[in-house]
Amino acid sequence: MQKLKPFDHLILILGALFLVTPVVMAFMSSTHSAAEIHMHGLFLSPGAEGLATYGKVLTQKGGFTGEVTGARMVMNSLILGLGFAVGKVVLSMMAAYALVYFRSRFATPVFWLIFTTLLLPLEVRIMPSYQVMSSLSALNTYWGLIVPLLASATGTFYFRQFFKSVPDELLEAARIDGAGPVKFFLDILVPLSRPMMAAIFVIMFVYGWNQYLWPMLMTTDEHFFTLMRGIKSILQVWVGSQIPDYNEAFALAVLAMVPPLLVVVVLQSLFIKGLTESDK
């Protein structure tokens, strides 16, 4: 293995600073008052308003109804992110299991039909999806936020490729032991798929957590607003001489980074293993 030279370290340090500086700037700016940010711009040094700002955004009721807190928006984002990730993993595994192990002659055409949905981003099908959920009275509900986004061609593709690499001897051994399709799936495939499940979970949690367009369409009740909507609502406030609460918006932005970061850190080893290895 070639030893890194000082110039390589310099490049790495500059790259790390380039990525970290905006996050540090957002955090430091959140510790100053909105007036200071409005007059002097962003800060790279700490201010005296940090605890008051974070306490206010998490506990003080606000919004147009005066009944929504930052903690409520964090909870809504968590429900959306977890429901999104768990639902996609479960649905993708079941779809891939049916495609690989039920040996239907239509399995390959069905898989490619599912795969072509990758060509249809959410923005293309968002209005039909909204109309369907509106007719089902699913607006301003958690299941209305989560269920329409559960189908995942990407997850189905990865699990299908993984299941196809599982040796047939395992299936034959399970049959000899009297295991049915459900037992084989739960007792053999699910434990083998843990790294892949973790990798897909991390990707989908971050994707669901950062959703903005779909929650904006589906929710008009502030009790269902997510953090992304909360940040946007704060920055839209500009009444007379009142300036937007920049510090609170930065505080919410910093809080919005914490759960995805924790998920990545906790599942880091399984995440890397799921994307790079396929040990069985």
Automatic annotation (TrEMBL):
Q: Which residues form a coiled coil?
A: none
Q: Does the keyword Transmembrane helix apply?
A: yes
> What are the GO cellular component annotations?
plasma membrane
Q: Tell where it localizes.
A: Cell inner membrane; Cell membrane
- Gene Ontology BP term (one): transmembrane transport
Q: Which UniProt keywords apply?
A: Cell inner membrane, Cell membrane, Membrane, Transmembrane, Transmembrane helix, Transport
Q: Is Cell inner membrane included in the keywords of this UniProt record? A: yes
Transmembrane residue ranges: 78-99, 106-122, 142-163, 184-209, 249-272
Limits of the ABC transmembrane type-1 domain: 74-267
* Membrane protein topology class: Multi-pass membrane protein
Name of a matching Pfam family: BPD_transp_1
- Record-linked SUPFAM superfamilies: MetI-like
**Signal peptide positions on this chain:** none
- Family to which the UniProt record says this protein belongs: Belongs to the binding-protein-dependent transport system permease family.
Quaternary structure annotation from Swiss-Prot or TrEMBL = The complex is composed of two ATP-binding proteins (UgpC), two transmembrane proteins (UgpA and UgpE) and a solute-binding protein (UgpB).
Q: What role does this protein play?
A: Part of the ABC transporter complex UgpBAEC involved in sn-glycerol-3-phosphate (G3P) import. Probably responsible for the translocation of the substrate across the membrane.
Q: What is this protein called?
A: sn-glycerol-3-phosphate transport system permease protein UgpE
What organism is listed for this UniProt entry?
Answer: Zavarzinia compransoris
Q: What is the lineage of its organism?
A: Bacteria, Pseudomonadati, Pseudomonadota, Alphaproteobacteria, Rhodospirillales
